[in-house]
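FORM 12-B: Structure-to-Sequence Request
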């Protein structure tokens, strides 16, 4: 499939309808994804990025049919990760002379992954190549957005920013443009992508957005490497990224727990009720980590001003499901969020304190002593838990 983006720019990528997890099993992709590759045909013909390895042969065959492999003059590798570079070995086997333009770090990653000494040409921010008809491709390093090797490429004349992973979404659709997509699905997937992948790099992103704005490049289209292309008011996703990068939070509280015999679950439900009683304007959501999707839960945490976690105590610690979630929470380096912890126990009851201390080291402001409940709560206990929820709402 080939889709025209604008003038002499075509999408030549792959829509992956059946993908249900990405980065191994680290990211759930309920709506599939796409690997967006672009072909620019001016006096020079340029391929920007390729597709994931399983689709390499299909990609190269389509490209050959569409343009003829011998007619490609340059290849731009905005990012070395295998979902965009996976077709390089198949393509380079047929065009071993093809010049590849990428950052120095991308040379490192591509050589490290494919063990080939291809015709690499290292570029830095502000470097450009002339592709004829008065147009240039200008390179912008996007270091740590989200890999050290990432960069974006800007096409003058058509004013298209090929942003690679930035501004993308794991979202399969033939309506490849934002004005054709289901807006609620698109906005959710864009936020989920930011929350689960880009949150740790928010400070870098704030600076990079300022740098890009400072370059005064007119941007008519943002052509991402996953999901839809932003052509209708592309500034909207830049503005959203600016808001998300600014320690984003809404008037929401997320409670995440796991439970063995429903004691900790009853605490979670009662804390939620107490919060609602104290402040009905707060959106409270409650998730059992063993029954919910981890990446969707992280998206809720990203939107929240407070995270409240619950686990019974097993082996003097929290349940391993909760430990896995908190490990991910720490990795994401959330800023300016509050937290508290709770849990039922029968014998020693260390879990709430351990979770609370862990969240403090992860950068959360702990707003209350951990709530510990010995054995199952009775009605009097639940009244106290309800009051605890009210107190958290006011924290
Ligand atoms: Fe960082 Fe879409 O790869």
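FORM 12-B RESPONSE
SEQUENCE OUT:
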């Amino acid at each position: 499939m080939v889709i025209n983006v604008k003038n002499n720019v075509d999408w030549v990528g792959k829509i992956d309808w059946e993908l249900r997890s990405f980065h191994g099993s680290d990211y759930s992709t309920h709506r599939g994804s796409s690997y967006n590759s672009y072909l620019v045909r001016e006096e020079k013909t340029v391929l920007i990025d390729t597709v994931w390895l399983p689709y390499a042969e299909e990609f190269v065959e389509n490209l050959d049919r569409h343009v003829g492999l011998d007619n490609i003059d340059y290849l731009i590798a905005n990012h070395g990760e295998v979902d965009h570079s996976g077709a390089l070995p198949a393509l380079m086997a047929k065009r071993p002379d093809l010049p590849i333009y990428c950052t120095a770090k991308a040379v490192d990653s591509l050589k490290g992954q494919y063990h080939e000494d291809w015709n690499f040409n290292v570029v830095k921010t502000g470097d450009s190549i002339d592709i004829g008809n008065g147009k240039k491709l200008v390179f912008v390093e996007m270091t740590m957005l989200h890999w050290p090797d990432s960069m974006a490429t800007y096409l003058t004349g058509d004013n298209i920013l090929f942003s690679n992973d930035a501004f993308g979404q794991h979202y399969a659709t033939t309506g490849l443009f934002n004005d054709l997509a289901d807006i609620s699905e698109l906005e959710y997937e864009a936020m989920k992508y930011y929350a689960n992948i880009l949150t740790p790099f928010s400070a870098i992103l704030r600076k990079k957005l300022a740098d890009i704005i400072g370059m005064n490049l007119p941007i008519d289209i943002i052509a991402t490497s996953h999901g839809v292309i932003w052509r209708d008011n592309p500034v909207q996703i830049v503005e959203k990224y600016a808001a998300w990068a600014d320690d984003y939070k809404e008037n929401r509280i997320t409670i995440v727990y796991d439970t063995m015999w429903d004691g900790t679950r009853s605490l979670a439900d009662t804390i939620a009720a107490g919060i609602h009683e104290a402040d009905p304007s707060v959106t409270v959501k409650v998730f059992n980590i063993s029954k919910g999707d981890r990446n969707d839960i992280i998206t809720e945490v990203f939107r929240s001003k407070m995270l409240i976690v619950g686990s019974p105590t097993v082996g003097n610690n929290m349940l391993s499901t909760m430990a896995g979630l908190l490990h991910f929470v720490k990795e994401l380096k959330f800023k300016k969020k509050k937290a508290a912890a709770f849990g039922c126990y029968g014998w020693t009851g260390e879990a709430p304190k351990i979770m609370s201390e862990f969240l403090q080291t992860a950068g959360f402001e702990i707003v209350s002593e951990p709530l510990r409940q010995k054995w199952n709560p009775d009605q009097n206990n639940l009244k106290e838990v309800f009051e605890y929820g009210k107190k958290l709402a006011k924290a």
